[in-house]
Amino acid sequence: MLDLAVAYREETFERMRGPLAERDVAVHHVPAENRAISLSDPPWRSDEFDAGFVYPSRAMEGGVVDALLDVPWVNDREAVLTSRNKAGVIAALERAGVPVPETVLVSNPADESDLLAAFDRFDPPVVVKPNSTTRGVGVAKVGDADSYLGVTDYLDLVHDYRATGDKSFLVQEYVPEATDYRAMVVDGECVGGVERRLPDSATDGARPDRWKHNVHRGAVATGVDLPANLRTLAERTAEALDIDYLGVDILVADDRAVVNETNARPTIDAETKYDAGFYDRLADLIRRTAARDGD
């Protein structure tokens, strides 16, 4: 039996625990956040686990857990940081020939003339988003220059705080009436995906005039049979970023498909929403990761 350390205990942990146990992978919770960890008398032995499943979301706590466990990770620190840098992902995919929305990176502080020049590159509305947040936090759609400058003023206030590490944001093309897909790639192969859409009525928890499709903001993820071109697009994305376990967000409108974002810590949905053999492939990736120990 292989022992796998998981640094968080949310949907993914509970869903993967049983299926992986059936494949001789024991899943253990190794909490890294919202607790006190003795560094001289740590709660885990360095030989207790064979691999870790996805580097912790907080880099500082993650560094401690990584040092204490001393295991190879399915998606290590570099993979998580690569995916979290939205602008870096767009730049890498653009260079690899993977279609992406037109995007401008703004590094604060920026002059108003530069901000307006970025806005004028697009037909409004535009999407303004922080470069390294998740779950749709801080993302805004603005339709005119004054509203746009108002949003960037708020970002400027946040970035003025000296302890803020990431002082950048994106101005991005808005893709209207797009269908939003999350494709899952495991070890280079797309193993299925979901369509994310808002509920039909406000009584389901989302207003009909909302446009963000994040599940954590009330959207519903429905398993779909992804067409071959979207599977190939997701696999090209994972290859370009060199990330083994990756959620790939794809927007499709008319005959156009673009990769909008990626997530190197994607939530595992219900097994029925993925291809047959999903957990077999995931278990194989975990075993291959564990085999890297000592290489």
UniProtKB/TrEMBL annotation:
InterPro entries: ATP-grasp, ATP-grasp_RimK-type, ATP_grasp_subdomain_1. GO terms for molecular function: ATP binding; ligase activity. It comes from the Archaea. Keywords: ATP-binding, Ligase, Nucleotide-binding. Signal peptide: none annotated. Pfam families: RimK (PF08443). Gene3D superfamilies: ATP-grasp fold, A domain, ATP-grasp fold, B domain. The keyword Ligase applies. Residues 90-291 form the ATP-grasp domain. The keyword Nucleotide-binding applies. This is RimK family alpha-L-glutamate ligase.
